Amino acid sequence: MPEVSELQAVRHYTNLSRRNFSIDNQFYPLGSCTMKYNPRGAHRVASLPGFTGRHPLAELPASQGFLACLHELQEVLKAATGMAAVSAAPMAGAQGEFAGIAMIRAYHDARGDTERREIIVPDAAHGTNPASAVMCGYVAREVPVGADGDVDFEALKAAVGEQTAGIMLTNPSTCGVFERRIADIADVVHDAGGLLYYDGANLNAILGTARPGDMGFDVLHVNLHKTFATPHGGGGPGAGPVGANERLAPYLPTPMALREGDAFRWLEPADAPDSIGRLSAFAGNAGILLRALAYARMLGRDGMRRVGEFATLNANYLMERLRQAGVELAYPERRASHEFVITFRQEAKEFGISAMDIAKRLLDHGIHAPTTYFPLLVPECFLIEPTETETKEELDAFVAALTQVLGEVRTDPERVKTAPHNLPSARLDDVKAARDLRLVHGAD
Amino acid sequence: MPEVSELQAVRHYTNLSRRNFSIDNQFYPLGSCTMKYNPRGAHRVASLPGFTGRHPLAELPASQGFLACLHELQEVLKAATGMAAVSAAPMAGAQGEFAGIAMIRAYHDARGDTERREIIVPDAAHGTNPASAVMCGYVAREVPVGADGDVDFEALKAAVGEQTAGIMLTNPSTCGVFERRIADIADVVHDAGGLLYYDGANLNAILGTARPGDMGFDVLHVNLHKTFATPHGGGGPGAGPVGANERLAPYLPTPMALREGDAFRWLEPADAPDSIGRLSAFAGNAGILLRALAYARMLGRDGMRRVGEFATLNANYLMERLRQAGVELAYPERRASHEFVITFRQEAKEFGISAMDIAKRLLDHGIHAPTTYFPLLVPECFLIEPTETETKEELDAFVAALTQVLGEVRTDPERVKTAPHNLPSARLDDVKAARDLRLVHGAD
Amino acid sequence: MPFIPHTDQDVATMLDAIGARSIDDLFDEIPGALRCGPLDVPLGEREMEVTAALTQRARRDEPGPCFLGAGAYDHHIPAAVWDICSRGEYMTAYTPYQAEASQGTLQLIHEFQTMMAALTGMEVSNASVYDGASALAEAVLMAVRANRRTRRRGAASAGRETATTRVVVAGAVHPHYVATARNIVQGQGIRLDATGFDANGTVDLARFEALLAEPPAAVIVQQPNCLGLLEPVDEVVAAAHAAGALVIAAANPISLALLAPPGDWHDRGADIVCGDGQPLGIPLSSGGPYFGYICTRREFVRQLPGRIVGLTEDSGGQPGYALTLQAREQHIRRGKATSNICTNQGLLVTAATVYMSLLGAAGLNAVASRCHAQTRELVTELASIDGVERRFAGPFFHECVLDIGRDAQDVAQQTATAGITGGLPLGRWYPDLANCLLVCATEKRSDADIAAYRDVLRRILAHPEQPATASAPERTG
Amino acid sequence: MPFIPHTDQDVATMLDAIGARSIDDLFDEIPGALRCGPLDVPLGEREMEVTAALTQRARRDEPGPCFLGAGAYDHHIPAAVWDICSRGEYMTAYTPYQAEASQGTLQLIHEFQTMMAALTGMEVSNASVYDGASALAEAVLMAVRANRRTRRRGAASAGRETATTRVVVAGAVHPHYVATARNIVQGQGIRLDATGFDANGTVDLARFEALLAEPPAAVIVQQPNCLGLLEPVDEVVAAAHAAGALVIAAANPISLALLAPPGDWHDRGADIVCGDGQPLGIPLSSGGPYFGYICTRREFVRQLPGRIVGLTEDSGGQPGYALTLQAREQHIRRGKATSNICTNQGLLVTAATVYMSLLGAAGLNAVASRCHAQTRELVTELASIDGVERRFAGPFFHECVLDIGRDAQDVAQQTATAGITGGLPLGRWYPDLANCLLVCATEKRSDADIAAYRDVLRRILAHPEQPATASAPERTG
Ligand SMILES: Cc1ncc(COP(=O)(O)O)c(C=O)c1O
Ligand SMILES: Cc1ncc(COP(=O)(O)O)c(C=O)c1O
Q1: Is the CB of residue D47 less than 8 Å away from at least one CB of chain C?
Q2: Cβ contacts (< 8 Å) between B433 and chain C: which residues?
């Protein structure tokens, strides 16, 4: 425990903060993470004393303000996803996945259909998908994604069977393309008695344009810290509300807000005997839900549609500019969704320069690197997501910076390999970090 | 007018801020400016919606909270300065000076004593002192400060006469020493029918140890943005409450808060027929007064004394360490008050290095430069004020940095002359700024 | 020990280095007779306790919907404004004397100067003085210096009792501004002569003409004026310039998004534009901290008080910013400075700059338009009450005088008790208007707020007049 | 357009570059049947309107003095904590995957790990999971993996229906924590067996012994327990270790400033310490965001879920920080990861780190001591009311169960109506304790608050019982 004065603590943490990149400081095109502007107005609203001061177990008469907000958010999310009911209990996307898969399991169990042991996930899926399936006691079975970025439909058909509890999909996928045969996939899985889980991490791409509920998904989560612009906080918090169609709605996790006339109350056990129950001590990341609600209200109907439209516009523009600049696209025949994948396999082969090297060198240009090495199936890749809140100028600056780095790959590869050069730290040694574990100060 | 998105504006001004030094980031030993820690708790209190939302002309029933605070601050300042009454109306030290001198004038005028045309100021005084005197229609007459840092008493006696309306003094003075003959000075001036104004910029040095009211001063101001730790805001705001003894109290500027039993009201014209009147549209820098009150309450009786004590301890320690490091002190025989003066006249003569060069090179060490070239009477000087909120380690680091720079003066003077080298800008051209006036974007 | 980091060990080491036995020793140059005992203030409290105590007080003043303007306006402030201003880098820096370590503040001020010049139609701006009223006082002093005629006269006199210089106040100028200016300039022998307003609530042109007969150094006109009405500024400027007087315009910066900028008035426009920046992102806060702005034409820049930032270059030829024309200021020029101002209102300028950037020209225009629309709505609704009517007929911006047919001070108190800040009882300023309320609606006042006020006011007015409360001729708060 | 910076010109240029005629073209891979019409949500509002609407809601819930704990505590939070956390650099950064561009967050987490290890008496800490309840669930999964015996068993089984692994819940553990853990671990065939508490309000040792007969993978004990009482943790640890079970301690971090750290319990201490970090500078906020912490000994670090930061060096040999042991995590190990957690509660860890730094060990101790003292005072005052008495006699930290002699749910509602958050009606958790309130006083509760509560409660209890309200067996909020 340190023993310092208030000034020392303030100065230390103020100065430390300046060793971070952030949305408020830099372009941050981290694919799959939707690093868009986090409105300060939403932060202020959630910081109102009536909200920050409310105890989670306060009596109902002292809870109507919060419950009204929670209920309103549930309704907004229903409308935006096309689902019949929403619980905002899960505290991030992964917990939403857990909840959704637990709901699928509860559904099968309730029908006495207890032999389904597999959840299918594409090999391009985010790591949380198989991890969540396993956490629920399932085996995660991978199906490949084809060269066009869509799931290999034949392989999928072959994988689906009576052992299939369900499938987890993002759409648009983590390859940055819209899964065109989604309706066929839904039919195949449903026909086999399985259910469809929608990983909402990429909802930003289609907000207001298409809804997972209309694509045949039975249950989903929404990452409010992505699509609904709540700040990522250097790792969290987030919130991962789950939505379900009529079939799965009875299994939604608690707590949920209920409206009765002008009053609000909590869903009681008697209201939801089939719920998978609570996943947190109280009501999930309530303060994040408030921020998301404020953001949703500021967007409104048209604003939501524009989010998807301009996220898509920015991604396609940036993809096109990079294509013209000679960058190799992973799926050159496809539209970008709100993000897209590029690959540096050529640079790796010719110059021994990795995607990570290029990422580090981009940092020197004051740009946060895109997501690297994800999806895993594309070698030496970047997943680039500019989001709708960035200007054309910022995108052009990214093209210029990456072009310059790619020039350097040819003219001065050492400079790229040893990047970054302009940051508080030079390249950090991950291997040493894991080998000589130094996890607390002082101890060695 | 710019036309940008919210993110662009936030990013622009967030990044711009990082091109500043500040107390929250650096040691900032700016003499006479009292750059001490500005408690975040005081900022939060002043930002409460009940305070920020109150209209200055709100009716009394909706003003009791604010008036109670204003009244309490008036009382605290009376106690801390030894004055009979305080008005917190002036919006900074200079306006406090104006108010005080206007009160002195009103006092003389009220007595029909209208021929006094001079206000005496030591040549070490801050520029606002003569400027304020002139603004009130007086001639500012300078008296010299002696080699020991005290006012030249004989010269003073010679200057005082029936033309003397009053004298403006800081004590401890801007030479960083306590004016030892203050009682004699008071007698001389009072005997001639003049009055004594105390410039409270240096009150931090003696808070809780000595009071201007006990030294014979008739009227004074307190810079709340110095002694009472309200943030300087990159230039302001401040607040400069004025205090007066019984003799001058009737002339205090309005508005002031009055207590009547448990209720508070504004002083009305009928209560204060002799007031010099208002100096602002409303009640001065009310939000700053709230911050100062919160700070005063956190300090309390013992805390206030410790402010003066530790400010003095830090200054004397730093002075002693610098003396030992071979730095020339302007007043080597004297105790430092909360600040002290050093001079680089030797470096200037021998190496052509100015105090400004050294100041700029200190910036490269991540330390804000002390006040340079003030007081004007000491050539090539620094006025150094560490304040009580800095640690011994920080002072030691300053000694180390200055020692290193002074070494460089000898070994690599060019490096010092061309400093700074590690900041967003290299040495800026003041002459060009004044010659080619470019005061707005675009226009030339 | 609150805010003091020293350990006992530190103190011992430090005293040792100094060669003193105790901290008290360090005060040995202060005569014993001047040492004081413990201050008569309460014992210290922790942040928690102070927060609790002052929160309780703040709650007492928590306002309902505010229809009071009169120089301070309840606009919406985007959350980003103060989130940015509260960053330590802005909030806890000093005046940017060390330019290389202050580029953040300096560039921001330069952007501020640019925006203010654009808004007022002037060429240059300073970096703030205290508030709108003190800005007017400084503008008067500046005009007297700048007007060649008065400068000559001033040079002739010396010391305290100089010949009187006159400045004419045209029309309805905020009485607190006039009082402040008078209090500040009178020591230098400057007299303010006011025209007052006529039955239209604007400048009494006949009296104005008469006051120009002996040419004053300057003329002050406020637009919109302090009754919310539009003054005939073109006529005022024409007459003033014809008389050799400089024109000082006092203007609400939000109104400038809709109205003609003072720089465009009549021929060459106003010569100095000043006012309060509070509407630009600064909370009401009981009257401060706000900031005063002063803009002018380039020819007068050397008479402009307050700090000014210029674009220059560093030794590498890169653009950078620095305080400039410092020879005008007290720390250089001392008794001959343009003003005694030192500490200004920098943080509020920061807020205003961020605010204007967030809104842009279109956003400012939308705010101003909405203020106007809501005030029209307010006036319509309130005037629908029996016995309530507009006192002056002319066009207004976002304030309007309503005659409510009985003592407005009494009504305002009742309105306050009902949780609404209902406007300014004008009897405080003008005894003739004791039955009048000056009301204001900003963009923040919803239709529901307006309806609520209408209902409250109707209820109050439906009841017989209460016994007169203790009269309060001038509220000084 | 809110939050979208594009001008029409931008859009045209961009579409041109893409070779599309409209933005709609860019969606041409989405089958038409899947396109949706306008969403059924209201039209957008401006920040001003949203702020006004939600402020009105927030006001409805504005709390009076809070005497409710039960897992979330109303401590004083120094203003500096959230002023720092709200800096964009902390608040709007992502997970520090690019270490060189994230040294701020990484060093801060490393400091956090250091402080948490010190506080719990453990050797390592992760960088947070969701909350205290999910931390307990993760700790259970971790213990099952870490316990060699159960690990062997787990390896033998595969797929969904594995042999059941048992974990024993000893004493009064927060029912929401137990429910959460149960819901999360049951899919993996792990069963929680609870001892319940005895007449002392602590672990029923007889039942505990019985449940150890067939050795469980782990034992969970909460200290102080969810009734505020101190469990006989040394005995629990001794028995658990003797049975080959790992010990999971759930602990309120503030209490650790006073109580023996779990690392010191009995012989080698608890094996895993988890809990909720909310008391460390995080507002109540209706239950979140808080953060769950998990600390353990070095030997189990590879089973620890969540991110971990290690000190390493950069290519120049300078110290620097990086995420480490990432092979435990889902983004590398996918289905075989220690947990599915990805997004954690980073910003809350930032708050806790700043909070602990501001307070230091002495400050934390002062807070804990004051909480204890005020709770004693509270209990004394409330027990001075006729018919109110302590239900359990043992020592408590800052919560205590009071039997008020009648339905506590009813009383709590009346208390709320009187503006006081009066404690948890324990009937919600334990039907046997329907007449009991779990009350708590933090350092923030003044003597005046306590006296006010006493008077309110006395008044309520002096009146006859109201007709029973609709029963509310478990509040899920
Ligand atoms: C595609 C995808 N799925 C799931 C997740 C997991 O969501 P969370 O981090 O909110 O747990 C992420 C987060 O990065 C993601 O990108
Ligand atoms: C000695 C002295 N006097 C007067 C002043 C003027 O005070 P202010 O800047 O608050 O107007 C200062 C401020 O720097 C000062 O240092």
Answers
A1: yes
A2: 310-312, 322-324
Question: ipTM score of the complex?
Answer: 0.97
CA distances (Å), origin A42, targets A293, A324, C36, C75, C126: 8, 39, 51, 18, 34
Residues B155, B196, single domain; the answer is yes
Instruction: Report the residue count for chain A.
Output: 444
Is residue A427 located within the same domain as residue A402? yes
* Residue A40 in contact with partner chain C when CB distance is under 8 A: yes
Token digits for B430?
Answer: 């003041």
Domain assignment present for residue B9? The answer is: no
Residue B189 lies in a domain: yes
Chain D residues close to C46, C-beta within 8 Å: 76
Residue B380 and residue B343: Cα distance in Å, rounded? 5
Cβ–ligand 2 contact at C92 (below 6 Å): no
Residues B237 and B380 in one domain: no
Q: Quick one: DSSP state of residue C229?
A: B
D446 interfacial to chain C (CB closer than 8 Å): yes
Beta-bridge partners for A116: none
Tell me if A439 is assigned to some domain. no
* Integer angstrom CA distances of residue A256 from A411, A429, D70: 59, 46, 20
Q: Which of A128, A145, A199, A384 to probe ligand 1 with, by most ligand atoms within 8 A of CB?
A: A128
The verdict on A308 and A412 lying in the same domain is: yes
Question: Which backbone phi and psi does B313 adopt, to 5 degrees?
Answer: -60, -50
Is the CB of C444 less than 8 angstroms away from the CB of D83?
A: no
d(CA A240, ligand 1 centre) in Å: 9
How far apart, in whole angstroms, are the C-alpha atoms of residue B440 and residue A421?
36
Per the listing, tokens 């027929």 go with B273
Whether the predicted pLDDT of A372 surpasses 50: yes
Q: Which ligand is nearest to the CA of B383?
A: 2
CA distances from residue C378 to A375, C33, C383, C389, C400 in whole angstroms, order as listed = 59, 64, 8, 12, 9
A325 and A277 in a common domain: no
Supply the range of the domain harboring residue A421.
Answer: 19-38+301-431
**What digits encode the pLDDT tens for the residues B302-329?**
999 999 999 999 999 999 999 999 999 9
CATH of the domain at B397: 3.90.1150.10
B369 and B415 housed in the same domain: yes
Question: Does residue C80 sit at the A interface (CB-CB below 8 Å)?
Answer: yes
CB distance B174 to ligand 2 below 6 Å: yes
From the CA of D343, the nearest ligand is 1
Contact B5 A39 (CB under 8 A): no
Single out the residue in B299, B331, B355 at which a domain terminates: B299
Neighbors of chain D with 3 or more C-beta pairs under 8 Å: A, B, C
Select from D3, D5, D78 the Cβ nearest to the Cβ of B41. D78
Residues B192 and B47 in one domain: yes
Tell whether ligand 1 has an atom less than 6 A from the beta carbon of residue D334: no
Q: Which of B272, B299, B326 is the last residue of a domain?
A: B299
pLDDT at B57: 97
Question: What is the C-alpha separation between D400 and D396, in angstroms, rounded?
Answer: 6
pLDDT at C327 over 90: no
Does B256 share its domain with B151?
A: yes
Match 């740009």 to its residue by tokens: A367
Low-confidence ranges of chain D (pLDDT < 50): 155-161, 468-477
Mean confidence (pLDDT) of chain A: 97
Residues near A32 by beta carbon (within 8 Å), at least 6 away in sequence = A126, A174, A201, A202, A339, A371, A374, A383, A385
Cβ–ligand 2 contact at B32 (below 6 Å): yes
What is the CATH number for B171?
3.40.640.10
CA of B321 to the centre of ligand 2 (A): 28
Q: Is residue A8 a part of any domain in this protein?
A: no
- Using the Cα atoms of residue D433, residue A277, residue A57 and residue D197 in order, give the sign of their dihedral: positive
Number of folded domains that form chain B: 2
